[in-house]
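Lay summary

Proteins are chains of building blocks that fold into shapes. Our project writes down both the chain and a compact code for its shape. Here are two examples, one after the other.
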Amino acid sequence: MSVLYAEPTGSRQAKVTLQSDPAKKHNGVQDLETLFVIEFIRHGARSHYEDNVPASFFDGVKKGHVTKKGKVDHTRIGASRRKEYVTEKKFLSEKYTPSEILSLSTFVQRCSTSG
């Protein structure tokens, strides 16, 4: 038996973790092993589609694209996730290994940029 554990990690994020056999105990302490993690992240801050806001307000990025602030936010989130999954929990390899990570996104530019 496994347990699916959901945890909100921010205003637009959630993390789902599957952990193995919650009945297994070691010295009276529940022994759970994380099998995999699913994390949902919404795209970063984006510019408007409407023409009533000047492009300069969004640092000149195209309509609907991720702004510089959105990119900075996702860099910060990425550093936080790296610290958690690589440094602290040793869940992922120190060196990027594509087979350890699966990233899914729509074809909308702001979504693929944020992924």
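And here is the second example, written the same way.
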Amino acid sequence: MKGLAWLGIPTGDCPAAVRFSGETLGLEVACDAGNTGELAAGTGDRIQLSGPGHRHLESCRSDGASIVPLLEVDDLDQASAGLPGEPESNGTWTWLTFRAPGGNIHGLGAHMA
């Protein structure tokens, strides 16, 4: 494990949460798209806020999760061996989201080369 790279947090009012995080907490607002926003920490780590109608919020609510951490690894194939599901990608990251013992949702991700 290299560390925590991304954290997904569901919120009932995404625009207000993004505004609070930027104006009050001083986080950089990297993306503000209405029902989702991404905040950047000085370390490069990302926090994604997901509001009503966004797939991450709906997934968290249906699964009973409140926060979804993504742990950065060097080799996603090796780190995710034996875990169910198919990796997703956005052109910068490849990740696998899975349910850990205890029911919480987690993810493993790696920067694409």
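What can we say about the second shape? Residues 50 and 56 are 6 Å apart (CA to CA).
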